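Structure (tokenized):
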């Protein structure tokens, strides 16, 4: 390579022409970056040409330096202009590819539905909350104390035979009713109180069209001074009227270890009496177990099976349909 002024000027002119032509023909950002490194990089072609300036005399060196700066500026401007053009083209291509055709049919997404058990629970709780009750919950694995003893059912009590229980190896059990939630709530709160306890319960039972080993209960409890059986009847009638409308209701004497007196509640449904609830005045021994003064406070409780209400409201013939995954059944709700 020669290092005369004329040769260096010629080389700079040729470099500028070659580089601008290559820049104009580049089609991608990657190609453009490679051209920048090739012509303007630290070891690029412009640097190689300027390496000969050291052998020029002092009078001509500034002329070549000025010309080299002009070439560098021209290449830099050319690279920037081409970079903007390629970026604009890339953005337009992306926008073109992402265009939404509003005339095209949308992707089908089947609408979810609430399970009939959940919708029944929500409906029942809405009514009870509207009557002033607070929703409470508790563990499904319980101790014998909370499930039986605190509810006036000692170990030798014959009422334990009414509920065939799932006992666990550690001595605990799967709760047979949500009444245990009421005990826990009373231990943590002073009267007056109104609480409703929904949840799953477990009993050893033969599964058939009307029975299941796992089902759902909702139990309500009210404790205050001077509550009477009349208050209980009024609450139950108001609740059932909201569910079933103006149907005949009757109370039949019954027995539960944790209420005295106790009753079962029937409604006349499709020409027949249908048992829907159990209820009664809270036994004084239950109040003693939680530290309430039975001489000062009275209370009433009532409980129902959610599955029974769901079957009546939706006219189902088999409780097992509620626990299956048959979409032909579930899509009806």
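Design, position by position:
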């Amino acid at each position: 390579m020669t290092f005369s002024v004329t040769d260096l000027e010629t080389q700079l002119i040729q470099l500028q022409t070659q580089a601008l032509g290559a820049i104009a023909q580049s089609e991608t950002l990657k190609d453009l970056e490679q051209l920048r490194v090739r012509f303007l990089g630290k070891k690029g072609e412009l640097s190689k040409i300027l390496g000969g300036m050291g052998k020029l005399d002092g009078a001509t060196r500034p002329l070549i330096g000025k010309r080299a700066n002009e070439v560098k500026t021209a290449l830099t401007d050319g690279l920037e202009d081409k970079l903007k053009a390629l970026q604009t083209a890339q953005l337009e291509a992306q926008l073109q590819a992402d265009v939404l055709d509003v005339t095209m049919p949308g992707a089908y997404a089947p609408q979810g539905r609430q399970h009939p058990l959940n919708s029944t629970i929500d409906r029942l709780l809405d009514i009870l909350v509207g009557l002033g009750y607070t929703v409470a919950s508790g563990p499904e694995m319980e101790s014998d104390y909370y499930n039986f003893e605190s509810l006036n059912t000692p170990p030798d009590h014959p009422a334990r035979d009414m509920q065939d229980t799932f006992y666990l190896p550690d001595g605990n059990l799967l709760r047979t009713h949500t009444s245990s939630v009421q005990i826990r709530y009373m231990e943590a709160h002073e009267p007056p109180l109104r609480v409703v306890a929904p949840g799953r319960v477990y009993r050893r039972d033969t599964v058939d069209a009307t029975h299941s080993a796992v089902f759902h209960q909702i139990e309500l409890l009210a404790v205050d001074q001077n509550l009477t059986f009349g208050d209980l009847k009024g609450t139950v009638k108001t609740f059932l009227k909201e569910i079933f409308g103006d149907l005949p209701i009757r109370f039949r004497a019954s027995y539960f270890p944790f209420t005295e007196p106790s009753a079962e509640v029937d409604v006349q449904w499709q020409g027949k009496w249908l048992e829907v609830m159990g209820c009664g005045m809270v036994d004084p021994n239950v109040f003693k177990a939680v530290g309430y003064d039975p001489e000062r406070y009275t209370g009433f409780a009532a409980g129902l099976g959610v599955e029974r209400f769901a079957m009546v409201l939706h006219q189902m013939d088999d409780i097992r349909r509620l626990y299956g995954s048959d979409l032909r059944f579930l899509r009806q709700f």
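Reviewer-requested clarification: Residues 81 and 196 are 73 Å apart (CA to CA). Strands lie at 134-135, 141-142, 166-167, 173-174, 193-202, 214-224, 249-256, 259-269, 272-282, 298-305.
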